[in-house]
Amino acid sequence: MARLAALTQPTRSDWIFALRTVSAGLMALLVAYALKLDHPQWAMMTVFIVAQPVAGMVLAKGFYRLLGTLAGGVAAIGFTTVFGTNPWVLVTVLAVWIGICTFVSSLLRNPEAYGAALAGYTAMIIGLPSFGQPHLVVDLTVARCAEIVLGIVCAGLTSRLILPRLASDAIISRLKRCILDLATYAGGAFSGGDAATLSGLHRKLVADTQTLGEMRAYARLEAPSFAPRAHPVRRTIGQLLSALSAARTLHSHAAPRNAALLPVRSELQALVTELAARPGALDDTAPWVERLDAISAKARQMPEESVDQGDDRVGTVTRLIIAADFAEALKQVLRGLDALRAPVARPARSSRQPALVVHRDYPGALRNAVRAALATLLVAAFWLTTKWTEAAGTVILVAVVSSLFAARPNPVQVSWGFFKGTLLALPFAFLVGQIALPALPGFGWFMLFVVPILVPTALAMANPRYVGVATAFAINFLAFLSPHQAMTYDPGPFFAGSASILVGILLAIGVFIIVLPANPWLAANRIVRAMREDLARLCLHERVARRSAFESLAYDRINQLMPLVQNAGRKGDAVLGGGVAAVTVGLEILRLRGASQGQAIPSETALSIADFLRGLARELLFRAPGDPQTATVAVARQYAAAIARRNDAGELLQIAASLRIIAAAMDDFPDFFAKDKG
């Protein structure tokens, strides 16, 4: 209970965010009044729509909101000009446009995805009121863009100038927390800690790497000077995953106590325990890097024959190499932290960094597009048939919700939260807009009534647990309130408009449930399949990929996988665990490819490695879950044992260790490394 209270208790940063957001909203509304804009509430609503705790996130969301609004406005002008005389053709074209924008949005990432979705439903928001009055569409577009620009400018200025929380600082803070969490996880893994606790930490670390990746894009928009540090962030995330995978493997395959393993394991455990426990441990990373270098060097030394290694010499070498990999990856993470805190100018490289390959879920995007277009068209047809004036609001809300939330892993849950926030806003808006302000007009009274409502709302927006409902409350409270300088008591239109909005959200939820319902596991399986294909390409492609390129690709896949399975219990944990293990498998494949091309190993060993990699590629591409494993894993262990029997050279023992690591990962997550039957 104490921990829950701490999580829900607003922090100083939360209060700053709340007061800053409300102040920016009031400023935007006041300027909108001064400029005599037709719908001043849109300026204030925009502030709450783009409001984010980090300045770079506000700028990014505001920038793409402006682009989306401009694109939607231009589309509305074009469609209305060409098809404005035929309402049925016009709504059909608008529905198709929403489908196209939803398709594009589903293939992109935030905040770009938000801008694409906005371009779709903005055309509907501007186009519908222009029915029968096409001459108004340009004026509506200009007015809407002006209102939104005003809100973006107010939100951006306040977030950047009033006690700003910069994305670059947030990245460093989050990375430091990740390092300490990794140290805590590794300390538990090396000492045989509680499995449930370790699983929770594992999940948290993977989620935090996803957040780091998102913040990287925001920081680049916030300050162009951050661009040179974008690659270190990406590389550091890959090293975090590599260290996490190595620690998990050492925990899953703990060996009997022997004299060769104990010194390295004990030194690693002591280091990570001290790192996690010492206040300010990351203020100076040099001592930790020096110790990790020494541990890595010791782990990579082949143990002497006289040292007790138990009955499995290759197993001992394998675990020592994994320990060395963990130490090396953690060292690179610490160096990445230093690079972010004190970037240095580097000479331009002759070759460009590898491009990040993004997985595009085309089947899922097509489903989202069809669903959004069909839902919008059906409700618009109802509106045109019945000629119910307020149904225009229903059409707009169906378009907004079915497009904006389409790509979420659980769109029904997100939309239901939006509905709850909207429903909760209704009585507050009625009391303030229909009762209080008509009796007590003026901006001073408006502030007195609205600030006590919006400040707690903004505090809730700063809490990840309540951000969805709170944001819906803030936006729709202002939409229902529709603040103008002269407020009047007119409950009929108020309740009619409110009802159309609520009905629109419920219809969109029904569409998500009935029309082509989303199955997150299908999307997750497509990403897992892409990860297996990545590994197969590493096995078969003539050119050996660079480690940094593979790590960038692997962490991108895991980032996409995380939101789909993170709330799926043990099944989701198994998929995420398999994803992180795939990083280890890929790195060991690269190690085998590099070794096989060297001059220090016999030709028959190189041929054996090539045969094994071809068999591994077949396993990854063709074996289905539940099917018996092929001989790949057994062959890996046989090759490793044969190498150990024939030769004690360090290079060959490292090859044997790589084979054992791959076999262990495939044994731990057999279904992940098998072709799904869908």
TrEMBL record:
Alphabetical UniProt keywords = Cell membrane, Membrane, Transmembrane, Transmembrane helix, Transport
Where exactly are the transmembrane stretches of this chain? 15-35, 66-83, 89-108, 115-136, 148-167, 369-385, 391-407, 419-437, 443-459, 466-482, 494-522
Q: Which domain of life is it from?
A: Bacteria
Please give, as recorded in its UniProt entry, the membrane topology of this protein: Multi-pass membrane protein
Q: Where in the cell is it found?
A: Cell membrane
Primary residence: membrane
Q: What protein am I looking at?
A: FUSC family protein
